[in-house]
Design goal:
Elements lengths: L1 E2 L9 H8 L13 E12 L2 E9 L7 E3 L5 E7 L7 E4 L23 E6 L4 E7 L2 H5 L3 E6 L2 H5 L3 E10 L4 H9 L32 E3 L9 E3 L7 E4 L9 E3 L5 E8 L6 E4 L5 E6 L2 E8 L1 E4 L4 E7 L6 E8 L5 E7 L24 H5 L13 E10 L4 E4 L10 E4 L3 E8 L5 E5 L4 E6 L2 E2 L4 E2 L1 E4 L4 E7 L5 E6 L2 H5 L3 E7 L2
Parallel strand pairs: 2-5, 4-9, 10-15, 14-22, 23-26, 25-34
Antiparallel strand pairs: 1-10, 2-3, 5-7, 6-8, 8-9, 10-13, 11-12, 15-20, 16-19, 16-21, 17-18, 17-20, 21-22, 23-24, 26-32, 27-31, 27-33, 28-29, 28-30, 28-32, 33-34
C-alpha cells in the first residue's frame, strides 16, 4: 500500500493510485459515497496460497484515503458468508457507528449493506473487524485522512500495513495459545471462521511461548512473556521479505512513512537502517519530532516517520523487527536503477523487548495537548492475567462479568492502567483521544493518542474529556487477550 504525492506530482496522483489498485483515487468528488466491501481474497505467502479476508475499495485494492475536509461517507457491504462489523480505529464517530457488535449496532449480515456518515479525524488510522477471529484473518485495511498541510508538503507518502499471519484458522491459533481452554466471556461471536487454505502437513514445532528476562525486576526468577505464538509469516502490505514491495523514490527525496501495526499479537521495532528519521506523529496525532533510526510500535498503534533520503542512488530497506525474536518484515525504498538485494526474513540476532522502561513513550510530547484541567474523576484500572491458565482481566473480571468504568459527558477523567501481569498490553479506548500524563509516578504532558502500551509491572495514566453519553469499549488490542475477555466498558452518562 503505497501512495506517492508531491506538489509536482499531486495532479497525477489519482491515476497513479488507480494503476496500483491499492487505495481510492483522491480526485473523486468529495460529496460522493465511497464503497467498501468485506470479502475474501487470496495471497501468495512464500509460495503458498492463503485465503484471507479484506476490505476492498472498489478499485481492486484495500483501504481508503480521504481528502482534507471530506466526510466519511461510506457504504459498507458484507460479501462474506458470516456476519461482521467494522470498527473505524482512530475515528470518533457517533457511538451508533463505532462498529462494536451490539454496542449498540448489530452485526452486518451476509449480503447486507450499511451506510456511514461522520466527520473524520485527520491522520494515519485503520479499520478492522471487531470480531477477533476476523481481524486475525486480515479483515483490516488502512484509513488515511489527509490534512490540508499534507497537500502542501513536497514529499512522498508510503503506507506500511503490518500483519502477523498463520495458515491455521484463528480458532486453531487461539486453541494453541490457550491450551484449548474455553474462551467463555467473549461477547463477540467467534463461529464460522476459517482460512480455507491447505493445512495438511503443518509443522507444529514452531508454535510455542517465547520468554525474555525482564531487567530490574524486584522478584528474581520472574520472566516477561513476549510472544505467545510464532506465526507462519509477518507481512508488510500483504508481502514477506521473500518478495517485498519495492517503492520507487527520488534521489535525495523526502518520504513520510505511515505505519500501521494491524498484527493480532506482535509488537515491532521499525528500523530505518542507514537513513536518519524523525517520528512526527503517533496514532494520527502530531508530536514534537524525535530523531532516530529505530522506533517501537505495539498492536493497533500508528507511527508517522519522516525520512530524508541520501543524495545518491540506492536502495533503503525499512524493516519491522519482531520484538524478542529474529523475524522481520518490511519494504524497500529504491531510486531508479538502484540494485535491490534480497533480504532474509530472519535477522542475525533477536530484537530486544519493546519499551520495558517506557523510554519511547516518555519522550513523546503532543503538538496540541489537551487543555489543562483538573480531573473530576481518577480511577485505577488493574490489568492482570497469566499464560496458564490463559485468562486476562480488567479489574479482576472478564467481559460479561465486567463492571463498567463510569463518567459524565464533559468531565476530565484520568485512568491509571496498572499492569500486574508479565505481558504488555496495548490499551485502546473507543470514541476518544487521550493524553498520556503520567508514567510510573512521574507526571508529564505526553502524546495524544488512542492506544497506549503498558509494559509488565508498570503504571501509565491517561487523561481524557468524556464524550458522547454512550457505552464505549475499553480493551487490550492483543487479540488473544481480547478473545479471552480483556475488555470492559467506559460508560459515559449525560451531564
Amino acid at each position: 500500500m503505497t501512495s506517492s504525492f508531491t506538489r509536482r506530482g499531486f495532479l497525477a496522483a489519482g491515476a497513479a493510485l488507480g494503476s496500483l489498485g491499492l487505495l481510492p483515487q483522491l480526485g473523486r468528488a468529495q460529496s460522493s459515497v465511497l464503497s467498501l466491501v468485506a470479502g475474501t481474497r487470496s495471497l501468495d505467502i512464500n509460495g503458498r496460497a492463503a485465503s484471507v479476508y479484506g476490505l476492498s475499495n472498489g478499485l481492486g485494492g484495500q483501504g481508503l484515503i480521504l481528502d482534507p475536509d471530506q466526510r466519511f461517507q461510506v457504504q459498507l457491504t458484507n460479501a462474506l458468508d458470516v456476519e461482521t462489523l467494522i470498527h473505524w480505529h482512530g475515528q470518533i464517530p457517533p457511538n451508533a457507528q463505532d462498529g462494536v457488535p451490539d454496542m449498540p449496532m448489530a452485526k452486518l449480515k451476509p449480503a447486507e449493506t450499511r451506510n456511514y456518515d461522520f466527520a473524520p479525524q485527520p491522520g494515519t488510522h485503520w479499520m478492522h473487524s471487531h470480531i477477533p477471529t476476523q481481524e486475525m484473518q486480515l479483515l483490516a485495511a488502512p484509513l488515511i485522512v489527509r490534512s490540508a498541510k499534507d497537500l502542501t508538503e513536497d514529499r512522498q507518502e508510503v503506507v506500511m500495513f503490518l500483519h502477523d499471519f498463520s495458515f491455521l484458522t484463528p480458532e486453531e491459533v487461539l486453541a494453541q495459545i490457550t491450551g484449548g481452554a474455553s474462551m467463555a466471556g467473549m461477547g463477540h461471536d467467534m463461529s464460522g471462521m476459517s482460512h480455507g487454505g491447505d493445512m495438511g502437513g503443518m509443522d507444529m514445532s514452531a508454535m510455542g511461548h517465547d520468554g525474555m528476562a525482564m531487567p530490574g525486576m524486584a522478584m528474581p526468577g520472574m520472566a516477561m512473556d513476549l510472544n505467545d505464538f510464532n506465526f507462519d509469516a509477518y507481512l508488510t502490505n500483504d508481502r514477506t521479505l521473500a518478495d517485498p514491495q519495492v517503492v520507487k523514490v527520488d534521489i535525495g527525496g523526502r518520504v513520510r512513512l505511515r505505519i500501521v501495526n494491524a498484527s493480532a499479537a506482535t509488537t515491532y521495532w521499525i528500523d530505518t537502517g542507514g537513513v536518519e528519521a524523525a517520528l512526527v506523529a503517533v496514532d494520527g496525532h502530531d508530536v514534537v519530532p524525535i530523531k532516530g533510526r529505530r522506533f517501537g510500535i505495539a498492536m493497533a498503534q500508528r507511527l508517522d516517520i519522516v525520512l530524508d533520503l541520501p543524495a545518491g542512488q540506492g536502495a533503503f530497506p525499512i524493516l519491522a523487527l519482531r520484538e524478542g525474536a529474529r523475524e522481520q518484515t518490511g519494504l524497500i525504498l529504491a531510486t531508479a536503477g538502484a540494485a535491490v538485494l534480497r533480504l532474509d526474513d530472519l535477522a542475525a540476532v533477536a530484537s530486544p523487548a519493546f519499551d520495558l522502561d517506557l523510554a519511547q513513550e516518555s519522550q513523546l510530547r503532543a503538538m496540541v495537548p489537551l487543555p489543562d484541567r483538573a480531573a473530576a474523576k481518577a480511577e485505577m484500572v488493574m490489568l492482570a492475567g497469566s499464560m496458564a491458565p490463559y485468562v486476562w482481566t480488567i479489574n479482576g473480571q472478564t467481559w460479561g462479568s465486567h463492571q463498567p468504568i463510569t463518567a459524565k459527558t464533559g468531565d476530565r477523567v484520568e485512568l491509571m492502567f496498572h499492569n500486574m501481569s508479565m505481558m504488555g498490553h496495548p490499551m485502546h479506548l473507543h470514541g476518544h483521544a487521550f493524553q498520556v500524563v503520567q508514567i510510573n509516578g512521574t507526571r508529564f504532558a505526553g502524546a495524544v493518542r488512542d492506544t497506549v502500551y503498558v509494559p509488565p509491572m508498570s503504571q501509565v495514566t491517561i487523561a481524557l474529556d468524556a464524550g458522547e453519553a454512550a457505552r464505549w469499549m475499553l480493551h487490550c488490542h492483543h487479540m488473544p487477550h481480547l478473545a479471552t475477555g480483556m475488555m470492559t466498558e467506559f460508560a459515559v452518562q449525560a451531564s
